[in-house]
Specification:
Blueprint: E1 3-4, E2 29-32, E3 35-38, E4 53-58, H1 63-68, E5 78-81, H2 87-102, E6 107-117, H3 119-133, E7 140-144, H4 154-157, E8 161-167, H5 172-187, E9 195-201, E10 208-215, E11 218-226, H6 241-248, E12 249-250
Parallel strand pairs: 4-5, 4-6, 6-7, 7-8, 8-11
Antiparallel strand pairs: 1-12, 2-3, 3-5, 9-10, 10-11
Length: about 260
């Protein structure tokens, strides 16, 4: 089961205090295997030499990567644009992460995140399943819309936090898929003892209702419907709590037989 921090910093996580950066600390671009990615702010500072950093995977259309740029100094992380959406792609990503760590990139396995909207939303669940097959898990997923793949599955849902967003002016299929995902999550065994709460706000410029399933003090599933919003992603990223929630999520280190370096396929 996942452990999520209560106030943003957990004693078991290697998270530094907020830093002040100068231009020399700007993220560098790295290439490993067939993938190109960016490093965190301040990655090469001597005082950070032993520090592990989250990996933010930005799915189709790169919306997560684009919006993350505004909070990158508050939440330093590796950033990977991954324009893939199949289970085989998730397996590849899981193996790539294993190999990147073996090659001394300081990625925190407990804090790998995924964002995806539209095709990236549909593809987020297959990527998560493929990652699990490779012995890896996302700590949290931000999903916007998508018109397929409502069922993440209990085994992943009990470890991976999810915040699902849907505009009620999106097409009927996408709205129906989103509501199906809500019902599936309510029925997962991992959520049977969860406490369900409901809130409303207009922080994003749209009236929004959010259902949260909290288990053992952890908001493992969030579902937000936006009145008057169509098939767009920008409004959900205007909520300052979104990335704070994401970077608060962490897996417990239970992978006792986690894979060592493996061939990519």
């Amino acid at each position: 089961m996942m452990a999520m921090t209560a106030m943003g910093v957990d004693a078991g996580l290697n998270v530094a205090s907020p830093e002040a950066f100068d231009p020399s600390d700007a993220p560098k671009t790295y290439s490993f295997g067939t993938l190109v990615f960016k490093g965190p702010w301040g990655y090469d500072r001597p005082e950070n030499a032993g520090r592990l950093y989250p990996l933010l995977v930005s799915g189709f259309w790169n919306e997560g990567q684009d919006h993350y740029a505004g909070v990158a100094q508050a939440h330093p992380a590796f950033v990977l644009s991954y324009q893939k959406d199949g289970e085989a792609d998730g397996r590849f990503l899981g193996h790539w992460i294993t190999n990147a760590i073996a090659a001394s990139y300081r990625i925190d396995l407990d804090r790998v995140y995924l964002t995806g909207v539209s095709r990236g939303g549909s593809g987020s669940f297959p990527l998560a399943r493929g990652m699990a097959e490779a012995g890896r898990h996302f700590a949290a997923i931000i999903r916007g819309a998508g018109q397929s793949q409502p069922d993440l599955g209990n085994a992943i849902a009990e470890r991976t936090a999810l915040w699902y967003h849907i505009g009620l002016l999106d097409n009927a299929t996408r709205v129906a898929i989103a509501r199906q995902a809500l019902e599936l999550n309510r029925d997962y065994a991992c959520n049977r003892e969860a406490v369900e709460s409901r809130t409303s706000d207009s922080l994003t410029g749209y009236t929004r209702t959010t259902v949260t399933l909290t288990h053992a003090g952890r908001p493992m599933f969030r579902y937000s419907e936006y009145v008057g919003m169509g098939h767009i992603s920008a409004p959900l990223y205007t909520d300052p709590a979104l990335f704070a929630w994401l970077f608060d999520c962490a897996l417990t280190p239970v992978q006792t037989n986690a894979p060592t370096e493996v061939a990519l396929r």
